[in-house]
Amino acid sequence: VPDHVVALALLDAATEIGVHGIAAPSANRFGHVSPTTAEAVREELDQYLSPQDIILDGGPSQVGVESTIIDCTGNNPHILRPGAITAEMIEETTGLKIEQSKSQTRASGSLDTHYAPKAKVFLLDPINPVVACIAGVGFIAAANHPTPDGAIRLASPNNDDEYARGLYEALREGDRKNLPAIYVIPPSGDGVAIAIRDRLQRASCEGGSLR
Prior knowledge:
Blueprint: H1 5-16, H2 38-45, E1 69-71, E2 78-81, H3 87-94, E3 120-123, E4 138-140, E5 152-155, H4 160-176, E6 181-184, H5 192-203
Parallel strand pairs: 3-6, 4-5, 4-6
Antiparallel strand pairs: 1-2
Helix pairs in contact: 4-5
């Protein structure tokens, strides 16, 4: 059940006319950068929509990256896709340790290449983010990292939560500007930073190796 006033109102309205549940796919094309605003949904899907189709605008995504997917079919839970619900949260809630072995279960967004913009994405080492940056490329990094000469700043988040909320919109902005490449310094640490790094690795060239 979604935790959003617009989604909950939709479910309530559906209940009133006898609909017992709603199931729907994500509002993005397979493998592409996920929309995090109603305008981005229209940008992504407009050519596939009919005149009677409606986009409900609930404001920008509250988290930014996709939800955590957990495999609960074994003795211990296993995270198939990291998200805002972290391993620490799961262990505290369930009292079970997270299984670290790699699961063979197929989950949405688990391909090596996914969430990719048209621009080539290159990941930089957070400890030594040296880049021979050519003019006209995009740059995404925490606010404390200066913008390389000639680069176009696409996002300057102050913390990991801001990073997650703004990541996809920044990648989309790079495509709107027709940038050939986007250089990114991923966040370090745990929590939602794990999910951010996962998405960036799947969006980047050559499976996300740091450059």
